[in-house]
Amino acid sequence: MKGQLSADDLLRKLPPQVEAGEVYEVHSLETPVQFAAGTLESIKSVETAGRALRVIQQGRLGFATTSDLADDTLLLQSALGAAEFGGPAPFSFPDQQPPAAVQCFDAAVEQLSESEMIALGKEAIATIQAAYPNVQVFCDIHKVITDIRIRNTSGLAVESRRTHLSVEVAAQRTQEGDILFLGDEISSRQRKDVDIGPLTAYIVERLGQVERPARATPGAMPIVFHRNALAALFLPLMFGLNGRYVLQGASPLGDKLGQPACAPGFELIDDPRLDFAPSAAPYDDEGVPTCRKALIQGGVVQQFLYDLRTAGQAGTQSTGNGFKGGLFGGGWSTSPDIVPGTWIVPPGEKSLEQILTAFDEVLLVEDILGLGQGNTMAGEFSNNVALGFLVRRGEIVGRVKNTMIAGNVYALLRDNLIAVADQPQQVYGWLQIPAIALDGVSVAC
Amino acid sequence: MRDMILPALERSRADYTDIRVERRWRTVVAYEGPELDTLSTSTEVGGIVRCLVGGGWGVAVFNSLDRLPERVQDAERIARLAAAEVEEPITLAAVAPVQDEVRVELARDPRQVPLQEKQSLIEAYNKILLGHSDKIVTTQTYYNDTFSEVWFANSEGALILEERPDVQLLFGPTAREGDNVQNPYESTGGAAGFDVALGHEALAEKAARRAVELLQARPAKGGVYTVVLDNQLTGVFIHEAFGHLCEADFLAKNPEMRDILRLGRVFGPPALNVLDEGYVAKSRGNYKYDDEGTPRRQAYLIRNGVLEGFLHSRETAGRMGMVPTGNARAISYRFEPIVRMRNTYVGQGNVPFEEMIRDIDYGIYACGAVGGNTALEQFTFSADHAYEIVDGQVGGMLRDVVLAGNIFETLRNIEAIGDDMQVINSAGGCGKGGQMGLPVTDGGPHLRIRDVTVGGRAQ
Question: Can you tell me the ipTM of this complex?
Answer without folding.
Answer: 0.88
